[in-house]
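Continued from yesterday's entry.
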Amino acid sequence: MENIGFIGLGIMGKPMALNVLKAGYTVSVLEKNKAAGELVEAGARALPSNKAIAESADIVITMLPDTPQVKEVVFAPDGVLEGIRKGALFIDMSTIAPAAAKEIYEAFRQKGVEALDAPVSGGQVGAESASLSIMTGGNEAAFQRALPLFQAMGNNIVLIGSAGAGQTTKACNQMIVGMTIQAVAEAFTLAAKAGVNLEKMREALLGGFAQSRILDLHGKRIIERNFSPGFKISLHRKDMGIALQMGKENAVPLYGTAQVAAHMDALIAGGNGEKDHSAIVLLMEQLAGMNKG
């Protein structure tokens, strides 16, 4: 099996890396990462730099918060691009701008390294259960090489198209997720203020045409007032920004996306940016004069 370097051990990255270890791969992580100890206990190696990780790996995976962090890890002195070997494979599973994914792809190609953009959907639950949806941009041969590794982390794995196509698909995913959470939040706020039992309503709706994974999972979060982050509002707002920038570049008006992004801005300004994105309901309740916590 190929040696894996895994950079980025946050809410999503840590369980993803643990699942790669469970699948039998040799995994190297950055020793200064605060989660490195847990990975080492599970069998990973800790190395001192991103360059060292790249030098030791056949496949390097990044799972980082945003475009600047991915570019820093790739392009900085002592970074991945400096250490990676010809014939290796680079996979970015972060959610970043499609233009940046294409730039990174070309930089690696010049070193004789294939690159894939492979952002994921499914949140912390999907990362922990290895049931992520993985949307991939790049060439077929690189995708087939990565497929067994992807299967250790997800179960809905699709090669969308060429470099950047995975990130474009993820931007569209985040638009749909954001607007669906907004719809659930509005509906639950209306029902609660009208005196309807939310548990009973959710049960009924899950059996009809309004059924969705968001209604199921985030509807339950709203009822239980559980806003500990599976996916933070601040990170989802970043993704909505990527979508809005793509809309501008392609002359596509994204009215719903813009509205949800503005609501996320209000939540962040109110100190709720680190809460789960289902906490959009807090703003709806505030606007409805319900003043729930």
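--- second protein ---
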Amino acid sequence: MIIRGELDRAQLKAVRKQLDSLELPPAKRKRLMWRLGKYGLIPAAKRNVRNQQSPDGQKWQGRQTKRKGKMLRNMPKLLHIREMPEIDGVRIYLSGGGYRNGKKSVAAGTVGYAQQNGMNVTVSRRQVERKGRVESLPASLRQAKRLRALGYKVKKGKRWRKPPFKEIQEGLTMAKAGLLIRTLSGKAAKASWSVDVPSRPFLGITEDDFNKALARQLQGIGFGAGAGH
């Protein structure tokens, strides 16, 4: 899967107008398109990620977890350019990253597409348990806290007592703790659930930045204000 860093209609119209007015030879046209991608679109993507916002200035939706740190910070490093003579242009695509889903590798383009456009995924309990091997993992601290809050007790001699967090984690697996939590809370286990990934557009460039990039790259290939023809 490939993510395309495309110009909008107005930007494409501006490029074509410049190319037609300057009567650029094929080699110069290709060079200009490549430079617009390399020095215009990719830097814009880096800027968007650095500012954690979409090209139009809208802040991205934050994570649903407590995890801190910038989102998508490695994405711009995976952007590459490929010349596309058949469409008289270039394609910006994502490659690398080493993304994985369990033992299965996931293409950077797939990850980037999901972030750029957002997506909804249905996850089954079986998938999660298979991926995380919860049958053998020890109970988490969060599970231990939840069990104590629900009144979980263990028998010691003739007495029942609430075990400390560490004892719960050492004595129960994640799967067993989950079952106890559902039993004590009276909640049935979900067979599957839906996960929404919000869109966090990072590919794109504003009209103002595009116009500046176009002017700079025209000068870069020997056209434009102050450049000899």
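The two ends are 40 Å apart (CA to CA). Residues 150 and 173 are 17 Å apart (CA to CA). Will compare against the first tomorrow.
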